[in-house]
Fold this sequence. Notes:
By secondary structure, this protein is mostly beta strands. The protein has 4 domains: 25-403 and 444-512, Methylamine Dehydrogenase, Chain H (7 Propeller), CATH 2.130.10; 513-603, Sandwich (Immunoglobulin-like), CATH 2.60.40; 615-897 and 975-1094, YVTN repeat-like/Quinoprotein amine dehydrogenase (Methylamine Dehydrogenase, Chain H), CATH 2.130.10; 901-972, no CATH class. Strand 42 and strand 43 (675-680) form a beta hairpin. Helix 10 (411-421) runs antiparallel to helix 11 (426-439). The longest helix is centred in the N-terminal third of the chain and has 14 residues, at 2-15.
Amino acid sequence: MRPILTILICLLFLSGCKTEPNKLFEKLSGSETGVDFINKLEANEDLNAFTFTNFYNGGGVGIGDFNNDGLDDVFFTGNQVSCELYMNKGELRFEKITKAAGLTTDRWCNGVSAVDINNDGWDDIYISVAYHPSMTDTHNLLYINQKTPVPTFKEAAAAYGLDYAGYTTQAVFFDYDIDGDLDVFLLNTSPDTQNPSYLRPAINDGSHPSTSKLFQNYSITDGHPIYKDVSKEAGIIYEGLGLGVVVSDYNNDSWPDIYCSNDFLSSDVLYLNKGNGTFENIIKKAMPHTALSGMGIDAADINQDGKVDIFQLDMLPEDNARQKQMLGKPDYDKKQMSINTPYNYELQYMRNMLQVNLGNENGIPQFSENGLLAGIAKTDWSWSTLLCDFDNDRLKDVFVSNGYRKNVTDLDFISYFRNKDMFGSDKARAENRKDLIEKVPEIPLKNYAYQNKGNLAFEDVSEKWGLNELSYANGAAYTDLDNDGDLDLIVNNVDSEASIFRNSSELQNQNRSLTIDFEGNINNKSGIGARVEAWVGDEQLLFENYPVRGYLSSMPHPIVIGLGKNKIIDSLLITWPDGKVQEKYAIDSKIGKLTVKYREATQSKKLIDRFNKLFQVSNGLLDFEHKEFNYVDFNQTATLHKMLSKPGPAVAKADINGDGIEDLAIGGSFRGSETQIFTQDKTGKFKKVSEIPTSKNMELGAIHFFDADKDGDQDLIFAGGSCERPLNVSEAFQPQLWLNSGKGNFTSTKDFPSIHVSSHTITTLDIDNDNDLDIFIGGRVIPNEYPNEPQSYILRNDGGKFIDATAQLAPFLNKLGMVCDAKAIDIDKDGYKDLAIVGEWMPLTILKNNKGRLTLSHKEKTEGWWNAVEVADLNKDGFDDLILGNEGLNSFYKANAEHPIVLLAKDFDNNNRIDPIMGQYNNGQLVPVHPRENLNLQINAFRKRFTNFKDYSGVLFKDLFSENDKKGAMQKDVYELSSCVAMNDGKGSFQLVPLPWQAQQSPVFSIIPEDYNHDGNIDLLLGGNFFANEAHQGRQDASRGTILLGNGKGGFQPMTFEQSGLNFSGDIRTCLFFKSNGILQVFANSGRAQSYILNLDFHK
Length: 1100
């Protein structure tokens, strides 16, 4: 009987669907649900997108069971129309009761918070209200539930002290001082007090009208709380054009913190709760960069490590045509100016930001931004994001609402508007604007859904799940409207009916779930701020009861825990805001819903996590700061994707004075720091003993110690490595050999081949097995001729005299490629050292040593933007393998074997300057990567060809140049961007295997293979980042240093941030590990050296 019943239920469900039966969500029409709300907007002379910046920012959704009947009701905020309340009648049918409920509104309403503010057991409604000079009433509203079967309310904001009359975007109720009652944070904005895109010093003293407010619940009068403004004394003083806010405990100290997502140039604010009634803005200490036009935001543990991550929305389109019509010239200089005195803004970029919580450093949460790696950085003009488990598979997915009624970011329209608005009287300009608003392009956009696949991988399932509706969507909320154990979606749209999406997870995948509800204390009956940790199998699931999240919206108090195919929650830990806890075990999901009660909690003894860290910071060992001249490559070559003038510092280590302790040489930079020699003493401290004056002439790109003259000491060779001077300038690009006296004193020798090379790597090996070391110098770049291939060199050591033997031994080195690194390796154990070489636009390249003669071989389709190579036997088979540092996957640029990145280069416009033009695939088509303005700056002829942005937006890469133009052009391709290991099969072949995602967060420049935890297996220490990218991509700064523990079979397991102890800061170039004493030195471009020491007892 049961199988027949199941089939009948499924058939009934499918017959009612108007969408394909395999879609997770079904959109229900207003005629089906009774929800007919439309947030209708009509522009007029006083209020339009030109006079009121946030005109089309839309409204929110509030969820609450307002009549306590066990069914969640839905409240929509309206801007020019009244808010509306829809009572849930069951079976996804609703009744509009706004007027009868006393909820008709007469002002521009933004966010909504459903909260039991007076703790009578009934949800009330707090509405945030906008401000504009033309608006007659801008006070926020508070509607108190009158506890009737059909909900009715009375407005009482003034009586509670919450009738604030600024411009409030959203309100969050939470217990910031842990005194047992609910306080409230008001996220504010004021986009029209001045041009919000104008660069000016921020006003962070609490006086700016956009400064948010904190109201403390400080007394009870007439049976309800009274609130007072404590903003200034609490440290809530930072201005910001707030659009999104989410409260969470980001550093796991049991005190709730506040993240404010701010629009335009205003920096985001992360208020860390100090636990004494005050907050500190730690945004710059916690995050290297944030979104530029910060929109909606949510916080949840997306990678199941017990720490709360943050997803913040912005406006970068995924579609190539939209990108080309929105992205102007990337202004590197302006970006740099914004983060320095007197402006001191947080570094910001226009794309969604996935801030992965690494853990704490001295109580400050540290975040690594990985939106591009996760594939969720580009969702266009986005408003609300919700992180929740839609398919009940235990992993939190992502929903993004999208769309803007008037596409005012269209660059052609902006240009047209500026021209029309420049002249005439105020009246004429006002009339022009009214006319112009009708001409603004209108492009409804699809909503996005991403399924969490684990390991920071997300799949775009917008269409597959039935959520790719074209609309102008704003606020959104999730809840289980039909009490079937999965989360449905409600979306507030501009100028169209609100969307209700029914989730059919229970039929589609039969995953199980359990709903958790809260009974809090007498002054916080909904248990806001409670934390839930569930263990299901070997997975830890984390939830926090903070209803306000996304954009302008609030979720229900109960949470739904997806269990996948598991029937049982093994254990459940509930931590209440005051620290009391309760534990439950072996909870069967059959019960459907579990209510946890504060009165059953017990006082917990606070456990302090004490991590046995592999490395520890060791200050005072090395006093060195690398200083770089402010040369901007993009001013010479507008279409470069990365600068070539920031290679350093180059570093090398060796025992230079014969005391048995390794010492250090650090290369200088052109017009910056000098080349410096340091000796190390027995305590691990480094002392500068000499300088080699190079900064006047040379930027060192490569430096290397070796015994050049076989006298038993370590000599020094270095080469220039930048692009700031022409290659024919000998003083900049002639490699230099300095001979060691044996005591660490170096003298330059002129007896060295006359060659000019800009290099990033020098390595030595005995090519001819004559018991002395020969030299390989890799050519990195020809200045101002990128990407022409430079000459690389083999210098043969003939009894201490070096001869340029390139033509004799390896003539193919005249155009080997843009070499970044090389290491000696005996691939096949024949007793002759070979060379493994990597570089930009190069494949994995092997120079096979055939008894002193070198032959060239490539690994097919491994062309990458390789930075580094190291050698180690990773699987204990007796053959050395390779570890390859690449660009990584947290990048604008994507490539694979079928869809490479393409570079075409030639002097296309005959101005004696090479023009590098790049393309990559977008939605299956190869398109130019460059914004129109960059292309025009590089090749002036394109100005006439693409007279506006729309013309350029549809151009394919193949259409940029005629076949005649392409004659003689150089083409390069990239197929692989992952950092990898290359496993040696012992027969001269290598198999590339990508490293874990933690190794893909940033470009890898430094690799140190070593058995750090003393388990007999080779581990990997990786360092990287790259700051000098074009300004749209921006800094790649996600890596704080990575330890990968080897299993002895070629596999690796990443250590956590808190286990490794590493927290590298800056534009990391090189790391050196001194094995004898466990000291690790870390070097950054334009930064101070950082010192760590290995915990030798870690393995115990």
